[in-house]
Design a protein that fits this description.
alpha+beta; 4-stranded mixed beta sheet
Length: about 90
């Protein structure tokens, strides 16, 4: 048996394994629940999904940072983006 030093990135039995992020199916279910929870709430512009390196997050667009949004829904993280008020622009001819 050798006592060679380990690399800092070499996994050991004590290294915790990273859980994969939420699946698309789980994120869609959480998105439906969050949309219902935030429906009609002043300052919320939209609720969508965003891909992360290993799964999905819920993306909530808000007018300003004062809007109260949960940090997580059914195990799916919530990412809040302050966009300001969104308005539709007329189509160009």
């Amino acid at each position: 048996m050798t006592n060679a030093p380990r690399s800092a990135t070499e996994p050991t039995s004590r290294t915790p394994r990273r859980r994969p992020g939420p699946t698309l199916s789980a994120a869609r279910g959480a998105q439906r629940r969050l949309r219902a929870q935030l429906a009609g709430r002043s300052g919320v512009c939209g609720v969508g999904l965003a891909r992360t390196g290993d799964g999905y997050v819920l993306r909530v667009n808000v007018v300003d940072a004062c809007v109260d949004v949960p940090a997580e829904v059914d195990g799916v993280p919530v990412d809040v983006c302050t966009t300001g008020r969104l308005t539709a622009q007329p189509a160009e001819s």
